[in-house]
Specification:
heterodimer; A: alpha/beta; about 50% helix; B: alpha/beta; 6 strands
């Protein structure tokens, strides 16, 4: 009986691994492909905010988005960053006042554990990175985003990886848009470099032409600031 | 003497700790350079720094004042004739949008110093002047505000249009 189970596992495992491998490459290939959809489709958005200049740049994109298409919007920022969500809340409030939209339905605000705080030791970072990744997975499973917008804070990497994993497992599909910060003129940020090299971002934007020459798969469509 | 026109230099370090910049603007060399350029007031936002600049005032010297944080930094920028800022992109673009002359001072003590990239690129395009704490006096003496080129603000529309096209939305 025990032997049968082992034999079964021996057959099942390679099959499972091949299926997942094929699926992995299919997802990788399909991620870069654009789709076609009717004008009135609504897409659930995950918008990742970060401290410093990141939020200002991201809010420039959000204010330009067609709010009827890109809704509901889930804003995520690091647990230690109160300023960023506050800015997004102020903007969503202004939408309600001008359009009479209901924010309770269209905008949600969430916080995520950070992998590493500035100055934290490397040994404890292992544990906190694990915690941050699990939390990111939990958030992505809960939100099930169809579109992700990010521009480089450290918190965006575990969230994008989780979303990509869900795609491979066939538990959801989302398009990931990465817009590298305007502060990156000559080199990509670590998050940007990883998402570019691993081809996890469906569309990758840079804000300086010289950076586009260095990373030819990236798009340059002007500056956000 | 009391009729002297107020020309304020506003120094901002944002939410960072950048004592090297506060010390630099507090130095006799920089104060003298600012006076020579016709500035009358020096207002320093010192953020998390611990170095407290001296508040001296009187004839033929700069009127110096300082504070740590304030919700009205935008107002300070608006009333300034010259802004000296840390290299954070938030402060840089806020100042450029207001069309104020700007000297960005790069903090060399930061570990991952990618911030100097932005300041240097914008300096090359003549939108601002870029300095280090130890070269600030020299930069002030050598600067010619007439050479600055106004900054044309960016626009998110082309990026959003490409995102819409990728997602398959019909182009309006």
């Amino acid at each position: 009986m025990g032997l049968n189970a082992v034999v079964a596992a021996c057959y099942a495992l390679p099959v499972l691994i091949s299926v997942l491998t094929v699926r992995f490459f299919y997802v990788l290939w399909h991620s870069g492909q654009s789709a076609s959809r009717p004008r009135n489709t609504r897409l659930r958005c995950l918008i990742i905010l970060g401290s410093g200049g990141h939020t200002a740049e991201m809010m420039n994109i959000v204010t330009t988005l067609q709010k009827d298409r890109f809704t509901p919007r889930y804003y995520v920022a690091a647990l230690t960053d109160n300023m960023s969500l506050q800015k997004a809340e102020v903007y969503e409030q202004s939408l309600i006042q001008s359009d009479g939209m209901k924010t309770a339905e269209s905008a949600h605000f969430m916080q995520i554990y950070r992998s590493r705080e500035v100055g934290q030791s490397y040994i404890t970072s292992i544990a906190t990175t694990l915690l941050a990744t699990l939390h990111a997975m939990w958030l992505v499973i809960r939100i099930r985003p169809q579109v992700i917008f990010c521009n480089g804070p450290g918190t965006c990497f575990p969230l994008c990886i989780s979303a990509f994993l869900l795609k491979v497992l066939g538990l959801g599909w989302c398009s990931i848009f990465y817009i590298e910060s305007i502060a990156r003129v000559k080199k990509l940020s670590l998050s940007g470099l990883l998402l570019y090299k691993l081809r996890i971002a469906d569309q990758f934007f840079v804000q300086w032409p010289q950076l586009q020459h260095k990373y030819p798969r990236a798009c340059y469509a002007g500056r956000l600031m | 003497m009391a009729e002297r026109e107020h020309r304020t230099v506003f120094v901002t370090v944002g939410t960072t700790c950048f004592d090297a910049l506060v010390m630099a603007v507090d130095s006799p060399e920089v104060k003298k350079a600012l006076l020579q350029k016709g500035y009358s007031n020096l207002l320093i936002q010192m953020g998390r720094g611990t170095y407290v600049p001296s508040k001296v005032s009187g004839d033929a010297t700069l009127q110096v004042d300082h504070f740590t944080f304030s919700p009205s930094i935008a107002d300070n920028m608006r009333t300034a004739s010259l802004v000296i800022s840390h290299a954070g992109s938030g402060s840089i673009f806020e100042t450029l949008r207001l069309g104020k002359p700007l000297i960005v001072v790069v903090n060399e003590d930061l570990m991952d110093n990618h911030q100097s990239e932005l300041a240097e690129e914008l300096a090359e395009r003549k939108h601002l002047f870029c300095a280090r704490p130890q070269t600030l006096g020299e930069t002030i003496r050598a600067m010619d505000l007439e050479t600055l080129v106004p900054y044309e603000p960016g626009d998110a529309k082309p990026v959003v249009a490409l995102i819409n096209r990728f997602l398959g939305f019909p182009v309006a």
